[in-house]
């Protein structure tokens, strides 16, 4: 088995959440590591405030439960709150918790620091990695990104565009494929698997070997399990 090391960075563009994937960046790159740590610290603080708001409104969740459920995960997020709410019987699954109280327009929502996508792209590039824009047209997540942003990010150094994703309808995949071809971006795929709390199945959408090769040509990283 060959593993492609990477990171997912939550960015912000005009009040919208933008997820950037960084494949094969150098984990020892000081500036990227510092930016990720700043983001993690902000996410932890905002998550605690969200738990306090929910608990004050009578929802069955405490900060100690969230920490216990998250285990040794370094980056805490709303799914960890959802897992506690599901375990305590308030919702049947994560999706239901997000749809009701954990979405970005909820009264319980608290924002956190997130870099601009252009900055994240620059950091991933400086660290020798390949930046890829994740699920840009996933309407189920509350919003989609405009074609103009894809063009701007391509000019800023974006390497790829996620095409194959469960939240992309066939027309969205065609749109993403067309944009990838237009701007010379590598078309990738992902199951977006974050554990058993989501319906996503590991490997349900993948990146082709050819696309992976095209990304590797832009990086200085080493696949785990591959021969040097």
UniProtKB/TrEMBL annotation:
It comes from the Bacteria. This is Putative metal-dependent phosphoesterases (PHP family). One of its GO terms (molecular function) is 5'-3' RNA exonuclease activity. Residues 185-204 are annotated as: Disordered. PANTHER family: EXONUCLEASE, POLYMERASE_HISTIDINOL PHOSPHATASE N-TERMINAL DOMAIN-CONTAINING PROTEIN. InterPro entries: PHP_domain (IPR052018), Pol/histidinol_Pase-like (IPR016195).
């Amino acid at each position: 088995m060959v593993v492609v090391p990477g990171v997912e960075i939550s960015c912000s563009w005009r009040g919208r959440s933008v997820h950037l994937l960084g494949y094969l960046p150098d984990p020892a790159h000081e500036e990227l590591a510092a930016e990720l740590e700043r983001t993690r610290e902000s996410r932890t603080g905002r998550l605690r405030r969200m738990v306090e708001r929910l608990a004050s409104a009578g929802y069955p969740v405490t900060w100690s439960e969230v920490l216990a459920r998250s285990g040794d995960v370094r980056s805490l997020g709303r799914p960890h709150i959802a897992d506690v709410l599901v375990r305590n019987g308030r919702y049947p699954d994560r999706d239901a918790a997000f749809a009701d109280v954990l979405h970005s327009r909820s009264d319980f929502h608290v924002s956190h620091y997130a870099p601009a996508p252009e900055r994240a792209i620059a950091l991933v590039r400086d660290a020798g990695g390949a930046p890829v824009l994740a699920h840009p047209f996933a309407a189920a997540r509350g919003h989609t990104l405009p074609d103009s942003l894809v063009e701007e990010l391509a000019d800023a150094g974006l390497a790829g565009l996620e095409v194959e994703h469960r939240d992309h309808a066939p027309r969205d995949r065609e749109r993403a494929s067309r944009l990838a071809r237009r701007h010379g971006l590598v078309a990738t795929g992902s199951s977006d698997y974050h554990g058993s709390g989501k319906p996503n199945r590991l490997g349900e959408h993948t990146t082709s070997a050819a696309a992976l090769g095209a990304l590797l040509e832009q990086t200085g990283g080493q696949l785990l399990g591959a021969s040097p």
